[in-house]
Specification:
Elements: H1 6-20, E1 28-32, E2 49-54, E3 60-63, E4 68-70, E5 76-77, E6 82-83, E7 86-90, E8 96-101, E9 112-113, E10 118-119, E11 124-126
Antiparallel strand pairs: 1-2, 1-7, 3-4, 4-11, 5-10, 6-9, 7-8
């Protein structure tokens, strides 16, 4: 679906924004060091989690006809030393919203995370 109408894109983006802020908790993004699952439906290995960042509520900073931009996350402490290879974004109900490949879909200043270090995101833009 590379050629969708503006109205359809806006509807998809609004639905995504509603999905992200649903649930009783805040949306999160978790960075992992292992191989990314082939589908967001496949559970992530919790032993490969390096750090969990939390978005403010609401987590949506801006919606345009081409993307949804999320607010910056909190600064969180890295719980395990490793190289971040992918990230999973979860909504406030803990449901998977998106999987991102580090270096392709999301960039980090340094992918080598060290136990006790800190990490935060300044901007994440998701496209439908």
């Amino acid at each position: 679906m590379s050629k969708t109408s503006i109205k359809a894109r806006l509807d998809m983006i609004q639905a995504f924004a509603n999905f992200m802020d649903s649930g009783s908790q805040s949306a999160t993004v978790i960075f992992y060091e292992d191989t990314q699952p082939t589908s967001p439906a496949i559970a992530a290995d919790p032993n490969s989690a390096l750090v969990t960042l939390t978005f403010p509520e609401p987590c949506i900073k801006e919606t345009t006809i081409t993307y949804v931009e999320l607010h910056p996350t909190n600064t969180a402490t890295v719980i395990k030393t490793g190289t971040a290879t992918w990230a999973r974004i979860l909504n406030g109900a803990g449901e998977v919203a998106a999987d991102l490949t580090v270096g392709t879909d999301i960039s980090l200043a340094n992918t080598n995370l060290v136990l006790g270090g800190t990490l935060f995101t300044t901007s994440i833009k998701l496209k439908p």
